[in-house]
Design goal:
The structure holds 2 protein chains of 2 kinds. In chain A, helix 2 runs antiparallel to helix 4. Chain A is α+β, with helices and mostly antiparallel strands. Chain A is built from 9 helices and 6 strands; from the N terminus they run H-E-H-E-E-H-E-H-E-H-E-H-H-H-H. In chain A, strand 2 and strand 3 form a beta hairpin. Chain A has 2 domains: 107 residues, Alpha-Beta Plaits; 70 residues, no CATH class. Helix content of chain B is 22%, strand content 22%. Chain B has a 4-stranded antiparallel sheet with strand order 7-11-5-12. A two-stranded antiparallel sheet of chain B has the order 1-4. A two-stranded antiparallel ribbon of chain B has the order 2-3. The longest helix of chain B has 13 residues. Chain B is α+β, with helices and mostly antiparallel strands. Chain B has 2 domains: 56 residues, 2-Layer Sandwich (Alpha-Beta Plaits), CATH 3.30.70; 142 residues, Alpha-Beta Plaits (2-Layer Sandwich). The chains are: A alpha+beta, B alpha+beta. At the A-B interface, helix 4, strand 5, helix 5, strand 6 and helix 7 of A face helix 3, strand 5, helix 6, strand 12 and helix 7 of B. Strand 6 of chain A pairs antiparallel with strand 12 of chain B.
Chain lengths: 205, 239
């Protein structure tokens, strides 16, 4: 379930993309875990997440944040667009001592720096070695930068092309187009702020 | 997924939403049943103005399509929604990936191409020959006839899913041989797969895997997934 690992993009673009997960280890620390996941989401909400959600409910682009919080179970997600917010969230999580696992995806150096500022050390890391196999089947890189923000692959490349054409024709703004794509990611890890910038750039080409 | 052709008004609105590009127009919208992975995106999006998109749970083995492709569906065997397991996300609690070991994931069909289990089978058999330990709670492992051979059950090989992940562990010394084998598999498959490697930090905060990959000339992305160690380990059970 490595749904936040293989996000593609330039260093500049990825520097505005930090999905965070909070989850229980099934069968080990899941007794009474729901209030702890809810507290994670409340902490995240105080730091202007660009999205948040859970697979059991959906994202804040489908439901109000309080509805997402109420339905928390198993694993929950929030996405930030700057390392300062990640640092502040980590500091609050350390203070809250929820005992739940927390994973931050993003460029290695800034995330390590966020951990240091929060008094944390990275325990385990998952490295992406990229895409192998019949890569000629892939859509262009600029499309992949958008679609890989939903690791479950639910945001279609054809839909990205479609909304880019709508931006070009003036039928949608990039922000509105990003909001069209966001709810298809059932977990709430799609970053609409980053998507809007990527779509705007695609519409100019 | 299928479309009620009597109800469809041929508005074409649903066509771009399909991640597999399996919806085409033939007077009305039609879903290619062989390419459809039952992910449910077309239905969940609510785009159809006359509600003519239908999902009817399929019998085995087609039932695998929905459980591997729709992350809101839970695997009965693992109790996990989605395609894989907690892997490194809870490693500070479970101690699953220990120092000196590497966890590997091969995410077939990702990003965006989908995969048949026939291609997954090529990789799982190649890995089994090198003695990897497949993750017992992973849904793909459940589909193997025998974890010693990595052979996936014959009756599921032609089923197509949005993605399927092979998860395994092995000592870091085996990494070169295993990546060589995976590279050979990559020439034989009719899809793409994303490759990932998991490593536990050393006490000084370094990750030995980075040096091994650099020595092998294999790059990794500048971004990755980082467990920040906030989970509470089991007494004596964590790593």
């Amino acid at each position: 379930m490595t749904h936040t690992l293989h996000r593609r993009g330039t260093a500049e673009s990825l520097s505005e993309d930090y999905p965070m997960l909070c989850l229980t280890a099934m069968g080990i620390n899941d007794d009474g875990h729901i209030p702890k996941l809810q507290e994670f989401l409340r902490i995240a909400l105080r730091h202007d997440p660009k999205n948040m959600g859970s697979i059991t409910k959906g994202s804040m682009f489908h439901y109000k944040p309080e509805e997402v919080i109420a339905a928390a179970r198993g694993i929950v997600h929030a996405v930030f667009d700057n390392p300062q917010a990640v640092t502040e969230v980590l500091k609050e999580l350390k203070e809250a001592d929820l005992g739940m696992s927390v994973v931050v995806s993003g460029i290695f150096e800034p995330v390590e720096e966020c951990c240091k500022k929060a008094g944390l050390k990275r325990h385990t890391v998952n490295f992406s070695l990229g895409i192998w196999g019949k890569t000629e089947k892939l859509p262009p890189d600029d499309i992949l930068e958008v679609t890989t923000m939903c690791g479950h692959g639910l945001v279609s490349a054809n839909l990205v092309n479609s909304v880019v054409e709508e931006i070009k024709s003036g039928a949608r703004t990039p922000e509105d187009a990003a909001k069209e794509l966001t709810p298809h990611c059932a977990c709430g890890i799609f970053n609409p702020a980053r998507a809007a910038k990527l779509l705007a750039a695609m519409a100019k080409t | 997924m299928r479309i009620d052709e009597e109800q469809c008004i041929a508005c074409e609105l649903c066509v771009p939403y399909c991640p597999m590009g399996a919806i085409r127009m033939d007077n009305v919208a039609v879903i290619d049943q062989d390419e459809c992975v039952d992910c449910g995106v077309c239905l969940r999006t609510g785009v159809c103005p006359v509600d003519c998109i239908i999902f009817e749970p399929a019998p085995w083995p087609r039932s695998l399509r929905a459980v591997f492709s729709d992350p809101t569906t839970e695997h009965k065997e693992t109790g996990i929604a989605g395609r894989g397991t907690e892997e490194m996300k809870t490693n500070e609690v479970t101690g699953r990936f220990k120092r000196g070991w590497v966890g590997m994931g091969l995410e077939f069909g990702r990003p965006g191409t989908g995969t048949r289990f026939r291609d997954v089978d090529k990789a799982s058999q190649a890995l089994a020959k090198l003695g990897v330990q497949f993750e017992p709670k992973n849904p793909v492992t459940f589909l193997m006839e025998d974890v010693k051979t990595g052979k996936i059950k014959e009756e599921v090989l032609d089923e197509k899913v949005l993605s399927a992940i092979i998860e395994c562990i092995f000592p870091i010394e085996k990494l070169e041989d295993i990546l060589t084998a995976v590279k050979e598999v990559s020439k034989e498959v009719d899809t793409v797969f994303s490759v990932e490697c998991i490593n536990r930090a050393e006490p000084d905060g370094s990750f030995p895997l980075e040096k091994v990959l650099a020595d092998l000339g294999i790059p990794h992305y500048i971004n990755g997934k980082q467990n920040v160690g906030l989970g509470r380990p089991l007494a004596g059970g964590g790593n």
